[in-house]
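2024-03-11 09:14:02 DEBUG pipeline.ingest accepted 1 chain
2024-03-11 09:14:02 DEBUG pipeline.ingest length=216
2024-03-11 09:14:03 DEBUG pipeline.predict start
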Amino acid sequence: MRLVFLGPPGAGKGTQARLLEERFGATQISTGDILRVQSEQTALGREAHEYMKRGELVPDALVIAMIEAELERTPSGWVMDGFPRTVAQAEALDEMLTRRGIPLNAVVLFGANRQTLIARLSARWTNPRNGRTYNALTNPPKVAGIDDDDGGELIQRDDDRAETVAKRLDVYDTQTKPLIQYYRRRGKLVEVDAMESMQSVAQQIVTAIRAEMPAW
């Protein structure tokens, strides 16, 4: 299983990637996690961290190199969450996978409406120690404000506030939406309704993947 999850912030891509990881052993490759972990452990990560400290976007070439390094460590099934974000990154990923002889199986598009996404993201809380996220509306912790596993306090990040969320969705519309046409033309795109319950979306994904991969 080699999948890309595509959709706006707050559509539930990270949650569904973790469910596939738990159910089928497909490793979640999250750009955000890679940037956070590698910023402390690798030369590429430290270089990326310098851009982020200055509030600048990490250049495509550097992100692609970090993704390639991650694929070296993840030879079996995976779900790409947060990458690619642009057509240029998608082309680089295609070239990378072609070189390795492991084509992409499918791209899952998470369909969602803007107002619901703003409400969802504004209700998101994060464990600052490991990056795990909860949502007060769709996936709340057992005790409000407390992580289920380590019992520590959850925080709301600045980029999960309503005004910042609106700006993030604008960026998605401008930069990432063209990927929909890119993958549709290549016959890789399958769509799910991300506004359904977490369990319903998970079943939609499994059904869509099995339609694309009959032997799976």
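2024-03-11 09:14:41 DEBUG pipeline.report Strands lie at 2-6, 27-30, 78-81, 106-111, 124-126, 133-135, 189-193.
2024-03-11 09:14:41 DEBUG pipeline.predict end
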